[in-house]
Amino acid sequence: MSAVAFTGTSVMDVDAAKVRGAGSNVHFDKVSVAYGAHVVLHPLSLDIAPGEILAMIGPSGSGKTTALRAVAGFVRPASGRIRIGATDVTDLPPYERGLGMVVQNYALFPHMRVEDNVAFGLRAQGADKALVTERVKDALGTVGMSAYARRYPRELSGGQQQRVAIARALAVRPRVLLLDEPLSALDAQIRRNMVEEIARLHRSLPGLTILYVTHDQTEALTLADKIAIMRDGRVCSHGPTTELYRRPPNRFTAEFLGRANLLPVTIVEGVGSKGFATARHGDKMLTGAGRDEKTGAKSLLCIRPQHLSLTADSEHTNRIVGTLREVHWQGELTHLMLDVDGTPVRISATRLPMALPEPGATVPLFFTPADTSLVPEDAGV
Amino acid sequence: MPPAALLALLFFYPLALIARQAFLDDSGVANFAEVIHVLHSRFFLNALVNTVSISVAATAGCLVVGLVLALILAFVPFPGSGFIAQLIDTFIALPTFLVTLAFTFLYGSAGMLNTGLMEAFSLPLPPVDFLYSAWGVVLAEVTVYTPFILRPLLAAFSLVDRGQIEAASVLGARPFRIVRQVILPAAIPALIAGGSLCLLLTVNEFGIVLFIGAKGVITLPLLIYGKAIQESAYQVACIIAVVNIALSLGLFSLYRIAAGRLGS
Ligand SMILES: Nc1ncnc2c1ncn2[C@@H]1O[C@H](COP(=O)(O)OP(=O)(O)O)[C@@H](O)[C@H]1O
Ligand SMILES: [Mg+2]
């Protein structure tokens, strides 16, 4: 296993990709999909770089599965082209696209042993016996299921079945791995472990391009190099994971990707040389990281729940006041629900003052300008 | 147990009478000479061979036609496929000889096919006469009994996870391989159940064979009818009937075993 961090490109990434066979990029060129008159995917243009994990997230029904199935070849685009590497696959049947796919309910072949499930694709592609044996061993080893080769799927737990499904997809050395809600059928504990395992898997196969569809933002934040957020059949934002989280380009992204507190503000002084703007919320003057906000414009100040503090310090130059409504203790985290001039605000903290204020009390809240981001009120909505 | 007693009286007593007729002579003494004579006779062996070969051929035909139809209806949906599935299903409700009658209109010597061909090519005689042969019987039986295969197959296919088919397809399997390795394994109990039911029904088929009336195509049920009703040779008829019953019960147990596995 290489020691390369799975985000970013390094020299080692490139070397490993050469050894493993470089992954391909996936290119959506104005791809639209309609069922009858019902358009479920509006012309979508998107590029997934070789070796990149792109997480496509969004609420149920936003068209994520449709986009993934268009890449797999089960949904015919009404218009547009899909390219994988140098190949235009739009008119190719699924069995000629050279992909791997893993879906929520595993879809293992119930009458085949684990090893035959994993060997299925290689045999279908006419690989010789020795290669099949070697690759099956390899793929099962990669997902830690070597000891279960002779079992039938029904003799495995959900998590184990999903590992086999991943091994089955990897055994054919796909150009692109398509994952559609692969962990949604598993319970929380196993899901967390599996997310880490997929991250590890990608570190060992850095050339593998992955399209990861999920409605779970934690999975996306943990795994993805880039995220595309879908809404009503459109990509409403797309960018590197940390950037999208730190500087959400619109309200929907801010709310969907990690919970955001969004304070309505009016810009008093546009962005200065340090990238900060001054904004007014009620009678409070606040400083926030901005882009090109104009003086007088309405905006939203995005503050993540973990960045609000009940105590002041030298960095916390922003101060607002709220009324405490509820306190939820969750073990490692405590959530405080407040009301700031009619806007619900949440604080998530690992450490709180020993004496918490009672619900109904008025409490000052402090935060650092660098932890904020001004989000346009209406962009992309 | 009155229900069991009633059942025995209604069903097994008549069967017992047949067996008694078969193995006892008029004075009530066991007489196997006649049994051995009948079992070695040319007419019996001929009918047995006819019955089994027609039944096997018809069942094979039903399996092939049923499988192809079920695959199309289940996996290549087209507008109206649901209606067609139901239409084929209603075949089960029709008397078997009606289909034979329809066949006579279509393929008989005065049927549409023959008159059409005779007119088109100015032929003096009807060119197509396969209907009046064992093949005619097989064709009619395939038409009548295919729904008995189609029905359990469609039920089995509806349970196949579409995700498995798609997974196979992405992995590089072409449709034929998917049918062989993903779909058929799930349908084996249905094929065995439907196939044994077809064997059972075709072994006992009477109406179709009688209606086609092909020369020399005598099956066991037809032979029993002839011996009992036309020749009044009751003991001979009963001996053949016992063989026919044994054959049926054997096939029926096969069907029950397969249907049991299908249900589990
Ligand atoms: N086979 C289909 N026929 C008609 N509508 C469909 C079909 N599949 C999906 N849709 C519709 O397309 C929209 C997007 O679905 P989908 O891509 O599955 O969303 P997601 O995966 O984001 O939950 C939904 O409104 C859904 O109802
Ligand atoms: Mg989906």
TrEMBL record, chain A:
Entry GO MF terms? ATP binding; ATP hydrolysis activity; transmembrane transporter activity
Its signal peptide is none
Q: Where is the ABC transporter domain?
A: 26-257
Which one GO biological process term can you cite for this protein? quaternary ammonium group transport
Q: Which GO terms describe its cellular component?
A: ATP-binding cassette (ABC) transporter complex
InterPro entries xref list: AAA+_ATPase (IPR003593), ABC_SmlMolc_Importer (IPR050093), ABC_transporter-like_ATP-bd (IPR003439), ABC_transporter-like_CS (IPR017871), Mo/tungstate-bd_C_term_dom (IPR008995), P-loop_NTPase (IPR027417), Transp-assoc_OB_typ2 (IPR013611)
Extract the Gene3D superfamilies matched here: 2.40.50.100, P-loop containing nucleotide triphosphate hydrolases
Q: Which UniProt keywords apply?
A: ATP-binding, Nucleotide-binding, Transport
Q: Which family does it belong to?
A: Belongs to the ABC transporter superfamily.
The protein here is known as 2-aminoethylphosphonate transport system ATP-binding protein
Question: What organism is recorded for this protein?
Answer: Mesorhizobium qingshengii
TrEMBL record, chain B:
What Gene3D superfamilies does the entry give?
MetI-like
Keywords noted in UniProt: Cell inner membrane, Cell membrane, Membrane, Transmembrane, Transmembrane helix, Transport
> What topology in the membrane does the UniProt record assign?
Multi-pass membrane protein
TM spans (from-to): 48-75, 87-110, 130-150, 182-202, 208-226, 233-255
Q: Carries keyword Cell membrane?
A: yes
What SUPFAM superfamilies does the entry give?
Answer: MetI-like
Q: Where in the cell is it found?
A: Cell inner membrane; Cell membrane
Ranges where the ABC transmembrane type-1 domain occurs: 48-255
Q: A GO BP term, please?
A: 2-aminoethylphosphonate transport
Keyword Transmembrane helix, does the record have it? yes
Gene Ontology CC terms: plasma membrane
- Pfam annotation, one family: BPD_transp_1
Q: What family is this?
A: Belongs to the binding-protein-dependent transport system permease family.
PANTHER family recorded for this chain?
INNER MEMBRANE ABC TRANSPORTER PERMEASE PROTEIN YDCV (PTHR43357:SF4)
Q: Any idea what this protein is called?
A: 2-aminoethylphosphonate transport system permease protein
Q: Which organism is it from?
A: Mesorhizobium qingshengii
